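Worked Example 4.2. Consider the chain below.
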Amino acid sequence: MKILFLVPPETISLESSVPKALEGGKGYYPKLGLLYVAAYYERETGNTATFIDCPPENVSEQALLARVREIKPDMVAMSIMTFNLLDAMHTAKVLKQEHPNLKICLGGPHVNLYPKETLNLPEIDYVVFGEGEKIFARFVQALELRDVPIAESLSSINGLGWKLNGTSHINPAETELLDLDELPFPARHLVDVSCYQHIIGEGRQFFTIQATRGCPAACSFCDIRKTKFRIRSPESVVEEIEELVKMGVDDLFFVDDTITIDKKNVLAICDLIVVRGIKIHFKISARVDTINPEVLKALKQAGCYRIHFGIESANLKHLKYLQKGQTPEKVERACKMTREAGIGFFAYMMIGIPHETKEEMYETVDFAKKLKPDYAQFSICTPYPKVELYYQMLNEGIVPEDHWQKFAENPTADFKIKFWNKDFSEEELRQIQDECHARFYSSPTYIMKQITKLRSWSDFTAKARMGTKILTSRLGI
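Applying the procedure from the previous section yields the following structure tokens:
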């Protein structure tokens, strides 16, 4: 079979809790999960895949149709989040109008939550839910069997949903987790690495990497809360970094949710980077209670220039509501240690938490200013599909109905993400959000700090672009 792995054009994506002016303004990240699936598929089947990432490649709908006519794939595989389900559905419909026999397979976070609902949508022939690498490869191999009835071969694959004669079938979920060291490196050879960028990075060429999966923390707003934490060997991670450097990459983002859960593994990765003399800039995400001076020193020596911390709130009451498992005091200590180690940090903050007052939201801004991060982002608390926070707000009556379930069953373009706050309207929360960003980024102390840290004209223009977006958002331009 000829497989096209596809990231669809952005046409009708749902709006997120990130400020409107900043959506899409940070550059393009590669779809690492889909690249992993493509790499595993190529290794296990011996076939060569094709990969089109429409947004960074600037591939329009018409250009995509032309590419599909040229490639003539048997199947298009897309990995989707709830945010771009509508994009995927629209693209599937357009492709099938011209190629009725083309098969469409969807996987990714949205499908993991709603496999049956996704399979029941028009134009969708197959769904893969769970870790997709092995499932997808087994699925394609089963389709290529000639001496086994199709129903028999497909029904034996856990984590697969399929249609036969118009009837949907959902197999049991796959419970066996992958050994991360058995996975091939993502199929970066299928994409143009130069298409990916991040405007507040440190190097010339940006890309992503993953060293761990899962997170044992219990944050109620997160879709991977209390999941098994798994690591790759330091040797495997550093070999991949060396491969990326050979491709011209000098700026990496570890997309792991909390890479520092296993401190020994992080220290070993950093040590290998230093011992092998690899010149690389990178940033990571971490919980404030998973770092210490030893880890920070090793990260700095290896090339880490920024840590992304999920701080959320200045108020212990709201941190407990979110089941964050940290205190403002722990946050302050971690941020102080990070600054002293010479590493910058990005503070992810949250406003509009249920029962939070406007004054408390602005106290969170003051707290962020006190921490002195390089950047801060104030997202509006949003109960996303099937996370603990969503069920908590349903039980409290804050969310009146299971609107995400309705969307999964019937995704329409007029659907709007709701913040579901009893005390503030969406417009009020957006205005407060804009004010929070303006208060943080217009602080004279912050401005002077950024001026003293400018390294180049490109650095200046990148930060100026972000500042302009924030200003225009506040002014409603």
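Residues 201 and 370 are 23 Å apart (CA to CA). The first helix runs from residue 32 to 45. Compare this with Example 4.1 before moving on.
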